[in-house]
Design brief:
Carbamate kinase; 9-stranded mixed sheet; alpha/beta; single chain; 9 helices
Length: 236
């Protein structure tokens, strides 16, 4: 039995590149699709937001001279590319899915509405939510928090390349200690960079629990859905 009925899965665009600095790694994409298929087979309704950092990140573009608004718009389009790639991979696995976009771009994807997304989820479709919030100055983490709340998800699952939240960056500090559970308030007080402040605040104020885990290890998504304690659960 799955621990959750409906989840918002946030995937990292950078993770899609696997060992490369950019682009989409076919094996990583296939691994993601097969894990999502397993989640659907468990009876879980899955909505997905995927970042675009493997193609273009608006904030880093702004630091190199891009106009911030145009840079963020380019980043939104990058998330659409990744969403289409994931959609294709899911189709190859026989998983029904739909790509919804926060900005109009039919026939690439359907324009997002919460009612439409919920109807699709209830019919057994994986719903891939692209284009962020449709506005500049908001990250895909914030977009994920917003969509999780709108779609009345049981939890927001943040799939990263580390296995949870630590006292410091475990890739830089070998003495960093992992949390099994932590509160949103403690994330604030420790100034931990789990998500941007807007996304964290939205989850806290709307009582949306967060679970951070390593999505790049095959099988971890299923373990999370079964209730295995392999990541960090952020409590209210």
């Amino acid at each position: 039995m799955a621990r959750f009925k409906r989840v918002l899965l946030k995937l990292s665009g950078e993770s899609l590149a696997a060992g490369s600095s950019h682009g989409i790694d076919p094996q990583r994409l296939s691994d993601y699709a097969r894990q999502i298929k397993e989640a659907v087979s468990m009876g879980v309704q899955v909505a997905i937001v995927i970042g675009g950092g493997n193609i273009f990140r608006g904030l880093s573009g702004a630091s190199k001279g891009f106009d911030r608004v145009k840079g963020d718009q380019m980043g939104m389009l990058a998330t659409v590319i990744n969403s289409l790639a994931l959609s294709s991979a899911l189709e190859s696995e026989g998983v029904p899915n739909r790509v919804l976009t926060a900005i109009r771009m039919e026939p690439v994807g359907e324009f997002y509405s919460a009612d439409k997304a919920i109807r699709l989820l209830n019919k057994g479709n994986v719903v891939i939510l692209s284009g962020g919030t449709g506005n500049p100055f908001f990250t895909t983490d914030t977009g994920s928090s917003l969509r999780a709340i709108e779609l009345k998800c049981d939890v927001m699952l943040k799939g990263t390349r580390v296995d949870g939240i630590y006292t410091a960056d475990p890739e830089k500090d070998p003495k960093a200690v992992k949390f099994d559970t932590i509160s949103f308030d403690e994330i604030y007080s420790r100034n931990l960079k789990v998500m941007d402040l807007t996304a964290t605040t939205m989850c806290k104020e709307n009582k949306m629990p967060l679970y951070v885990f390593n999505m790049d290890v095959y099988g971890n998504l299923g373990k999370v859905l079964q209730g295995d304690a392999i990541g960090t659960y952020v409590t209210l």
